[in-house]
Specification:
The protein has about 500 residues and is an alpha/beta fold. The chain has 3 domains: about 160 residues, Rossmann fold (3-Layer(aba) Sandwich); about 150 residues, Rossmann fold (3-Layer(aba) Sandwich); about 170 residues, Up-down Bundle (Dehydroquinate synthase-like, alpha domain), CATH 1.20.1090. It has 21 helices and 16 strands. Bound molecules: nicotinamide-adenine-dinucleotide. The site of nicotinamide-adenine-dinucleotide has 30 residues, from α9, α11, α12, β13 and α13. Nicotinamide-adenine-dinucleotide binds next to α9, α11, α12, β13 and α13.
C-alpha cells in the first residue's frame, strides 16, 4: 500500500515524505523529480514549452511507474490529482493524506523557497490566494487530512502514520503494523494458520486462499488459553513439518494471538509469526507489543514470553462478524487508551456505540496509535508501559473470579471504573473525571461495578497472585485526569475494591 502525500505548494510534502519514508523504512519518491528526469527539463520549462496539460500527462505516467514499483511514500505535485484518472489511480493503490496549512504558513514557506512554482509566479500573496480559492473544494474532498502548521516534523509524521493506519514498530523487534484489507504476503515458508472455530467459520477460507496455508483450528475461549492447547499447537507444528524457517499465522482474537505467539516463541527456540487480529480488543491491544502467553488455574497470563510478530494486519472488515458483546468488550480497551493519553479518542468513546459502529476504522487506527506510542517508548515495561495496566489489576482478578463469565473487556471496564473511584477517594483525581469515565462505559453498554455477589476476599487473593505484585505493594496505574495516568504503589488493596 503506497502512501501519497498531497496538498498545496508549500505544505511540505517532500520534507514530510522523507521523514515518513524514514520512519516506515520505505523508499521515498518525489513525483515532480521523476517527471523532471523523464522530461529532461524542469516542470516550469515543460509548462512554458508544452502547457499544463503536458505536465498532467507526465504525472499520469510517473504515477503508473511508481505504483508498479515497490511500496513507497510518494510526494505528489500540488495539482496532481485534479485529473480524475490520476485520482482513481492513486486511491486504488494506496492512501492519500492531504496536508492542510494556513495560508500564512504557505506564504512564509514559499517566500523562502528558491524553487520557482509556475502557478505562483508574480505577486506571491495574491497568486496564492487565488490558487487556494480555486482548489478549496478539491482539497477538501480528501477524507484523510493532517494539519502541518504546528509541531515538529517527527510529530507530524506520527500523525500521518496514525491517520493512514501504517506503522513500522521498533520495539523489541522491527515489524510493520497495517490497518486495512487483509493481503497476500509472499515468500513465506510452509505457513500455517492457527485460528478458532468461530473465526474459522467466517474468515478462514479467505485467509487460507491469500496465504495458501494449512490450518489448525482450536476451541474458542479463554478457558482454552492453557498449557494443554500450547502443547497441542507444538505437536501440530511438528506434524505439519514446521521448521525454524516456517511462519505461523495467528488469525483470531487475543486468545489466539497470545497462544500462537507463545507457541511460536518456544517451538524450535522461536519461529516467526504474523498476527491477523479479528476482534476489536486484539486489534487495539493484544496484537501489539509482543507479549504472548497463557493462563494457569491460579491466574491469567502467568506464563509467557516477549516475542513480537513479524507483521500485524488489522482488517476492520473482520469486525462485522464479531458478536455485539465482543465489540463492546473491545471498546473497554479503547476507552482505556483514551484515558491513558488521548482525550480526543476518549471523547469519541463518549459518543456511544452507534457512533463507534459507524466509525470503526477511525476508532481502530486511533486506539492502535496510542498503544504503539507507549510500546515504542518502553518495549520491556521498565516504566511507562505499565500505564497500559490501567484497570487490569482489578480487572484480571474479577475476570478470573467470574470464571470467565465476564468478558475480558467487561472486567477491564469494571476494573478501570473501580480504580478511578479509588484514585478520586485518595485525592489523585477529581470526581468529574470519575463521572466522565463512568458515563463513557455506560454509553458503550459496559459494566462499571464489581458484581455484588462476587466474594471480595477471593478478588483480593487473586490480585495478590497477580504477576504485577512486588514484595510490599502492588503497583497500580491510576487515572489522574483524562489523558494522564500515574503509577502508584498501593498497600491497602481492600480500600481499592471497596
Ligand atoms: N498480549 C497482550 O498484550 C494482550 C493484551 C490484551 C489482552 N490480551 C488477551 O486477549 C484475550 C482477550 O482477547 P479477545 O477479547 O479478542 O478474546 P477471544 O480471542 O476469546 O475472542 C473473543 C470471541 O470472539 C470470537 N471471534 C473472534 N473474532 C471473531 C470474528 N471476527 N467474528 C466472530 N467471532 C469472532 C472468538 O472465537 C471468541 O469466542 C485475553 O486472553 C487477554 O489476556 C493480551
Amino acid at each position: 500500500m503506497h502512501l501519497f502525500l498531497y496538498g498545496p505548494s508549500g505544505s511540505g510534502k517532500s520534507t514530510l515524505g522523507r521523514q515518513l519514508a524514514h520512519d516506515l523504512k520505505l523508499p521515498f519518491v518525489d513525483l515532480d523529480q521523476v517527471i523532471e528526469i523523464d522530461a529532461g527539463m524542469s516542470i516550469s520549462e515543460v509548462v512554458e514549452a508544452e502547457g499544463m496539460a503536458k505536465v498532467r500527462d507526465l504525472e499520469t505516467e510517473a504515477m503508473k511507474q511508481t505504483i508498479n514499483g515497490k511500496e513507497s511514500v510518494v510526494a505528489l505535485g500540488g495539482g496532481a490529482l485534479l485529473r480524475d484518472e490520476n485520482r482513481k489511480l492513486v486511491e486504488q493503490n494506496g492512501r492519500v493524506i492531504l496536508l492542510k496549512a494556513e495560508p500564512s504558513t504557505l506564504l512564509n514557506r514559499l517566500g523562502k523557497d528558491p524553487n520557482k512554482r509556475p502557478l505562483l509566479a508574480g505577486d506571491l500573496e495574491s497568486k496564492l490566494k487565488a490558487y487556494l480559492e480555486g482548489r478549496a473544494g478539491h482539497y477538501a474532498s480528501f477524507p484523510l487530512q493532517v494539519f502541518v502548521d504546528n509541531g515538529g516534523i517527527e510529530q507530524i509524521s506520527k500523525h500521518v502514520q496514525a491517520l493512514a493506519g501504517r506503522h513500522h514498530l521498533s520495539a523489541m523487534g522491527e515489524y510493520d503494523v497495517i490497518v486495512g484489507r487483509a493481503f497476500r504476503v509472499t515468500n513465506l515458508q510452509n505457513p500455517i494458520i492457527v485460528t478458532d472455530e468461530n473465526v474459522a467459520k467466517f474468515h478462514l477460507e479467505k485467509i487460507q486462499g491469500l496465504f495458501n496455508a494449512k490450518s489448525i483450528i482450536i476451541s474458542p475461549g479463554e478457558e482454552y488459553k492453557n498449557l494443554e492447547t500450547v502443547s497441542r499447537l507444538w505437536r501440530a507444528f511438528l506434524e505439519n513439518g514446521l521448521d525454524r524457517k516456517s511462519t505461523v499465522i495467528a488469525l483470531g482474537g487475543g486468545v489466539i494471538g497470545d497462544l500462537t505467539g507463545f507457541a511460536a516463541s518456544t517451538y524450535m527456540r522461536g519461529i516467526d509469526w504474523i498476527g491477523i487480529p479479528t476482534t476489536l480488543l486484539s486489534m487495539v491491544d493484544a496484537s501489539l507489543g509482543g507479549k504472548t502467553g497463557f493462563d494457569l488455574p491460579e491466574g491469567k497470563n502467568l506464563v509467557g514470553s516477549f516475542h513480537p510478530p513479524k507483521l500485524v494486519i488489522a482488517d476492520p472488515g473482520f469486525l462485522l462478524t464479531l458478536p455485539e458483546r465482543e465489540l463492546r468488550s473491545g471498546m473497554a480497551e479503547v476507552v482505556k487508551h483514551g484515558i491513558i493519553s488521548d482525550p480526543d479518542l476518549f471523547a469519541m468513546c463518549q459518543r456511544g456505540m452507534d457512533w463507534v459502529k459507524d466509525n470503526l476504522e477511525d476508532v481502530v487506527k486511533r486506539a492502535m496509535a496510542v498503544k504503539i506510542q507507549v510500546i515504542e517508548e518502553d518495549p520491556f515495561e521498565k516504566g511507562i508501559r505499565a500505564k497500559l495496566n490501567l484497570g487490569h489489576t482489578v480487572g484480571h482478578a474479577i475476570e478470573l473470579v467470574s470464571k470467565f463469565e465476564l468478558r475480558h473487556g467487561e472486567a477491564i471496564a469494571i476494573g478501570t471504573a473501580t480504580e478511578a473511584r479509588y484514585a478520586a477517594r485518595v485525592g489523585l483525581a477529581s470526581q468529574s473525571m470519575v463521572e466522565a469515565i463512568k458515563s463513557a462505559f455506560l454509553e458503550l453498554g459496559l459494566p462499571i461495578h464489581i458484581p455484588a455477589e462476587m466474594p471480595r476476599d477471593e478478588i483480593l487473593r487473586v490480585m495478590r497472585v497477580d504477576k504485577k505484585k512486588n514484595a510490599q505493594a502492588i503497583r497500580f496505574a491510576l487515572p489522574v485526569e483524562i489523558g494522564n495516568v500515574e503509577l502508584v504503589e498501593v498497600t491497602d488493596l481492600e480500600e481499592v475494591i471497596q
